[in-house]
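Hi R.,

Here's the chain you asked about this morning:
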Amino acid sequence: MGTTTPPRTLAEALRARGDESLAGLLRARPDLLSPVPNDITQLATRAGTRASVVRALEHLDRFALQTAEALAVAPDPAPYDTLLALLTGDGEGDGEGRDDAGATITAALPAALTTLREQALVWGEDTHLHLVRTARELLAPSPQHPSPTGLGPTVAEATAGMSPGRLQEILTAAGLPATHDPVSAVAALAGLFTDRTAMAELLDSAPVQALSVLDRLVWGPPYGEVTPNPTPPVKWLRDRGLLLPVSTRTVVLPREAALHLRAGRAHRVPEPVAPALVAAAERDPQAVDRAAAGQGFMALSTVEELLKLWNNGGPAILRAGGLSVRELKRAANALDVSEPVAAFWIELAYAAGLLAPDGETDERYAPTPAADEWLDLAAQDRWTHLATAWLAATRTAGLIGGQDAKGRALSTLGPDLDRSAAPEVRHRVLDLFASLPPGTAPDPQTLLARLRWERPLRTSRPGAASSAPGSAGGQPSPGDTTDLRSRIALWTANEAELLGITGRGALSSQARALLDAGPVEAAAVLAPLIPEPLDHVLLQADLTAVAPGPLERPLADMLSVLADIESKGGATVYRFTPGSVRRALDAGQAASDLHAFLATHSRTPVPQPLSYLIDDVARRHGHLRIGTASAYVRCDDEAVLNEILADRRSAPLRLRRLAPTVLAAQVDPGSLLEGLREMGYAPAAESAEGDVLITRAGARRTPPRTPPVPVPEGPPVPDTTLLTAAVRAIRAGDTAARAVRRDAPDTSTAGSLPRTAAAETLATVQAAAMTGSAVWIGYVNADGAASQRVIAPVKVEGGFVTAYDHTADEVRTYPLHRITGVAELAEDTAP
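And the predicted structure, written out as tokens:
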């Protein structure tokens, strides 16, 4: 501990630490810095609060936690050898193989104890190990909160309040000499249970059924219910103190007896070593990189298609927030993926700042201006943008379809999807992937076992929300009770494959570069693996076009308007239909423009059927005109209008003739436009001036939006500069708080501010400035906050004192009227 005298309190133990050790404590437990403690005593007090201790215990690995649990059931303080015995056992009745396990535990225990000491959960030398009281209360056994070790209370705790007569009966039945002193009786009974020879003789005389009862209680829970007339085996155990009453119907196996039956071990299976990560398959690293790059390019295409789908304004936002189930299904059908996968892509685009609510009265989702900037980036830069956003996002798409704590459905883009543990779990999963040789895919079960070992407390209880019906690639079912961190880990593995972080189950080189060096280096690794975009397609006679690879963006944008995507894969197949050609004409293209476009970008001659299709649709396009009355249809050909009126399908439009060439409708122009198109016509919308309205893609964008801010998991980890300043401030405050004053007028209670008259205060600080000595002052700042400070006055003038403040470790100026009083320091303690 760095001192010759053993520390008596946690504060003394922390005070004996070096600055680097204190900085390590604050780094491991950043909640202790909010706000910065005034001194070491306040730091120790804050480190012992329940909320802080719970947070620290949740970040322990399994063996460090088992070590703390063993200390919780050990005497306080406990020698190192006692702790070691609780983890390894006494070596008797353990069976074969326990020697190797004991050696492993013996080798791992110092590191676990160091971790507990560094996090201020354990203090004291090896001869006197103290577990922080709050941690002991959290981990110690009680009827309401059984110990994680499965041990019950000690004999002294279980017999508290028991009558002396009953104690004498137990001693007599156990064959012990009678004593009228209750303390001696309890000590004798505890001594019996800790004496291996005497205990073995007692158990040898026990009925077989009694031993069966002990077997059911020995590893916990140690409590059992009994009837008013217990069976003979239970009565035998109760008479001899092997079962002690907790209430009229409950008995408990005392800790000393349980430890004898366990051969001295606090845990059935100590786990000093982290489970090994087993490889499920080994693949060619280059094949992994190519597969991941191909999947990453598919991810970019999917997000681009989603943005195009919502280009003119996406679905409406539910009153409770988020996307409706119907709209999710519609998006899934358009993207040709399952609904959970569609939800993942939508959430990823939202996390990357590419989608957001538009803020209108009838609020809808739409692409953001940042989406246009993203589309202009190179493919590798677009991928790193998505991957970086995914790694940092706390919104968890895998929860969609489940329920929150109040039984409400969790919807895509809705509230309550943030899980602060998600980024840490994602990074840890990928770090474990990276720990394997390139091209190696880990076994999922060993991956989960490793995560559970690293954070056992955080994976020992179910998550806040029920599991979703499935997520990207298939997930646990709604009835699964797997803990949240394990579910996030499974979702991470599947989402990483979808995003191209992994390929064929193994971590790609570009993902390793992203984790180790950053987006720039990852983009450089990925760039050679992405095919160059093409400037041509292959037109076929069956009214299709084949894109043998990724297309340049202007070509892809125009082709997506002129044709419908029929299939995707290594090559994309587009199909030309009357509806798709009409869509291009609605966007302001003329038939001649379409012919020229196809001739320019096709490596094959333009098929005659395609030319005929374009000319035929263009000839009929705009023949009908629709405007706003409620809506109207006008056409120079009266026969066409007569045909529409005679068609039964036009009845919902409620048309009537206003003039030989004009029909009026009782529906809005958009509905009239869609209704006539469904009847096989090709109408064009016109403005109030009679001009044809051109519908262009990408017309709707949200105002500038920032991506959703991830919900942090507790206070952020402080940087080195903040840690250095915090340690210096704590040290200085501790020096000031422990400084011995020569006299402290009007300080009736410890820690109160000195009180002196204004004239005495002025005279004292002036004298200190002349002699260069330090003084102790009480100071009240402009906000009314009072503090104690040790200062060395340099100059006193104009109602102010300029001094070196040992508490803040800097030169400051203080108004004299805010100094409550001053006292000189004892010479042997002056800074």
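The first strand starts at residue 122 and ends at 123.

Let me know if you need anything else.
M.
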